[in-house]
Write a structure and sequence with these properties.
ten-stranded mixed beta sheet, 156 residues, three-stranded mixed beta sheet, mainly beta
């Protein structure tokens, strides 16, 4: 199904994505990470393990690429943008570190802030909230993998 190009306020076309997409985190060498576009969530979240604060206002963590093999992803050290109190979908409030990196969906690449969290019980390793989607993407809730087929995630 083809969707016509829509314009947002600034005049550039919104890119249509499915409710589930494959994203890339090029600055961290991650390809084909499964992400859910969630217009009901304000912020974005990334599934990590082995998280610890390190000197220089940084955090070290391992990006979880595969739900079944939680320790196999790349270890990253990133600047902490801020700490934030975030209420999850089940109503629990958590204090989380927030980091920033570039996200690529299809041919578009832009910065996104991710809160770091254990998403072990979720199907998708990343969640893209309204702040990451607004002004860039139109989410087609009836479609998925608009920008390419699902592939096994990998670190380059």
């Amino acid at each position: 199904m083809s969707t016509p190009s829509l314009k947002h306020r600034a005049g550039s076309a919104l890119q249509t994505i499915g409710w589930k997409e494959v994203i890339h985190l090029p600055e961290w060498g991650v390809r084909s990470l499964l992400a859910k576009a969630d217009t009901g969530a304000r912020g974005s979240a990334l599934d990590v393990s082995s998280m610890r604060r390190v000197p220089g206002n940084k955090v070290e963590f391992t990006i979880v690429l595969d739900r079944k093999n939680r320790g196999a992803g790349p270890t990253v050290v990133a600047d902490i943008v801020r700490s934030s109190r975030i209420r999850s979908s089940n109503g629990v409030v958590q204090e989380r570190f927030v980091v920033r990196t570039s996200v690529q969906i299809g041919t578009r690449k832009h910065p996104v802030e991710f809160s770091l969290v254990n998403r072990q019980r979720m199907i998708c390793r990343a969640l893209l909230g309204r702040h990451a989607l607004a002004g860039r993407y139109l989410v087609d809730s009836s479609d998925k993998y608009v920008h390419g087929p699902r592939r096994k995630p990998r670190a380059t």
